[in-house]
């Protein structure tokens, strides 16, 4: 069992101390604290972005994404694994991020018709798109078939029957991988595990051989292999190895029945370090793939999301006020749970770093960091050791490039924050702050509700 969580209530590993500002920066190659310009991301002064766009605002680093993709590819080459990389669009579906990754030659893993449309809108080759997800609608399946995507990961016998009927009606053949639930505990937060028998995802392992045989007999279905994904934020190899070992046994069993299996989608889930410890290692992950699957003559693919884009994103925020109490003070930011939901949803830990070089050097004290939304759960950190910060000062919330902006809402009628992308020493706005009237632009009022 991986030891990535020591507090069962938290998504991320919980060590015995909070890393200092210096330790957080030192663990992130894209960050540095300039003595005069303050916190720099890649080659850009973050205060300059906050000044121009206001806060809260999101910042994505294109160079950081490229560097992490390069690390993945180098690790795959060292392991002699010809892996197909399909970016998990759900992690961050901004068109700029998708365009960047498409230009780097990766494919896409989508889980909705909207993500499929976004991916094709920026030019992903449909043949390099994989459609996953437990509840695809008939319209989404028709769109996938019509686009001619490379693979549909089917998650139930019921979905397989539905897809067969639709493909037959359309005169298409759907390339299908059966997503298998291997009943392997990834050791992650309950809300991000996907490979246990009581999770909603995938086909029961014991049912897989019979369903694969049935798929081979259905019209409009071309079964090519299997898919597996056991969860997110995994930083040790043992759960991967356990899952892949079971998948290898399944492939051998089905082949022994005379059925060809040519593809295995190894999923994603490699974790990052939200603190200052080691993150999930691509080399270790690929060694597990190599050890368990390398001799099966399969076309292998992976679906990284968080690992590629998580450390490439920041949320910039300003201090609204410091509320003094009998205990630790409340530092109220202008960012909130509607912007970054992960701390409220998963009790997730994110590093928080002042943009000011002077503030970063000050001694730390326990602080509660919260947002202005009218919910007790609108909290980024409790009793976090931070330097004292005054109203108007700015902070960066780290490692927010995955499941950050993409999960934002307009709760409390708060407009969606502006977004920027930087690349080296240049940056550009990639989404303007949502105007307040846009919050109700699509709403209509029935005549019987209108005032006389």
Automatic annotation (TrEMBL):
Please list the reactions this protein catalyses. meso-2,6-diaminopimelate + H(+) = L-lysine + CO2
One MF annotation (Gene Ontology) recorded for this entry: diaminopimelate decarboxylase activity
Q: Where does pyridoxal 5'-phosphate bind?
A: 269, 303-306, 403
| InterPro entries associated with the record | Ala_racemase/Decarboxylase_C, DAP_deCOOHase_LysA, De-COase2_CS, De-COase2_N, De-COase2_pyr-phos_BS, Orn/DAP/Arg_de-COase, PLP-binding_barrel
- The EC code for this enzyme is 4.1.1.20
Transmembrane ranges, per UniProt, are none
The UniProt entry, under SUPFAM superfamilies, shows: Alanine racemase C-terminal domain-like (SSF50621), PLP-binding barrel (SSF51419)
Cofactor(s), names only, from the UniProt record: pyridoxal 5'-phosphate
Which intervals hold domain Orn/DAP/Arg decarboxylase 2 N-terminal? Answer: 67-309
Q: Which residues form the signal peptide?
A: none
Q: Which domain of life is it from?
A: Bacteria
Q: Which UniProt keywords apply?
A: Amino-acid biosynthesis, Decarboxylase, Lyase, Lysine biosynthesis, Pyridoxal phosphate
* Residues annotated for substrate binding in this entry: 306, 342, 346, 375, 403
Q: Which residues carry this modification: N6-(pyridoxal phosphate)lysine?
A: 90
Q: In which pathway does it act?
A: Amino-acid biosynthesis; L-lysine biosynthesis via DAP pathway; L-lysine from DL-2,6-diaminopimelate: step 1/1
Q: How does it assemble?
A: Homodimer.
**Assigned protein family:** Belongs to the Orn/Lys/Arg decarboxylase class-II family. LysA subfamily.
Instruction: Describe its function.
Output: Specifically catalyzes the decarboxylation of meso-diaminopimelate (meso-DAP) to L-lysine.
Q: State the NCBIfam families in the record.
A: lysA
The protein depicted here goes by the name: Diaminopimelate decarboxylase
Name its species.
Rhizosaccharibacter radicis
Chain's gene name: lysA
């Amino acid at each position: 069992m991986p030891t990535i969580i020591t507090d069962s209530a938290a998504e991320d590993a919980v060590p015995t101390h909070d890393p200092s500002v210096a330790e957080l920066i030192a663990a992130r190659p894209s960050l540095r604290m300039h003595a005069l310009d303050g916190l720099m991301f890649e080659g850009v002064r973050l205060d300059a972005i906050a000044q121009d766009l206001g806060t809260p605002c999101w910042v994505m680093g294109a160079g950081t994404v490229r560097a992490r993709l390069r690390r993945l590819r180098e690790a795959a080459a060292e392991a002699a694994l010809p892996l197909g990389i399909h970016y998990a669009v759900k992690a961050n579906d901004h068109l700029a991020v998708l365009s960047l990754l498409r230009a780097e030659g990766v494919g896409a893993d989508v889980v909705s018709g909207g993500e499929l449309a976004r991916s094709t809108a920026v030019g992903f080759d449909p043949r390099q798109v994989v459609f996953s997800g437990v509840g695809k609608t008939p319209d989404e399946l028709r769109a996938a078939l019509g686009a001619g995507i490379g693979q549909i990961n089917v998650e139930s016998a019921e979905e397989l029957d539905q897809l067969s009927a639709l493909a037959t009606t359309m005169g298409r053949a759907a390339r299908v991988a059966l997503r298998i639930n291997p009943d392997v505990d990834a050791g992650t937060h309950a809300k991000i595990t996907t490979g246990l028998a009581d999770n909603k995802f995938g086909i029961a392992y014991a049912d897989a051989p019979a369903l694969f045989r049935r798929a081979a007999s259905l019209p409009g279905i071309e079964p090519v292999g299997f898919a597996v994904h056991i969860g997110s934020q995994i930083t040790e190899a043992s759960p991967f190895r356990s899952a892949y070992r079971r998948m290898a046994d399944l492939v051998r069993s089905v082949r022994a029945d005379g059925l060809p299996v040519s593809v295995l989608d190894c999923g994603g889930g490699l974790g990052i370090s939200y603190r200052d410890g080691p993150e999930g290692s691509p080399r270790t992950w690929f060694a597990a793939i190599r050890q368990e699957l390398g001799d099966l003559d399969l076309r292998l693919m992976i679906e990284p999301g968080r690992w590629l884009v998580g450390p490439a994103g920041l949320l910039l925020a300003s201090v609204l006020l410091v509320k003094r109490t009998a205990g630790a003070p409340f530092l109220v930011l202008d960012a909130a749970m509607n912007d970054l939901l992960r701390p409220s949803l998963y009790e997730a830990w994110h590093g928080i770093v002042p943009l000011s070089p002077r503030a970063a050097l000050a001694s730390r004290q326990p602080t509660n960091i919260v947002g202005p939304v009218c919910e007790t759960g609108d909290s980024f950190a409790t009793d976090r050791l931070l330097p004292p910060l005054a109203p108007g000062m700015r902070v960066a919330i780290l490692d927010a490039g995955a499941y950050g902006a993409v999960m934002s809402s307009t709760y409390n009628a708060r407009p969606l924050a502006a977004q920027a992308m930087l690349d080296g020493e240049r940056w550009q706005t990639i989404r303007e702050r949502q105007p307040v009237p846009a919050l109700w632009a699509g709403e209509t009022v029935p005549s019987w509700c209108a005032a006389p």
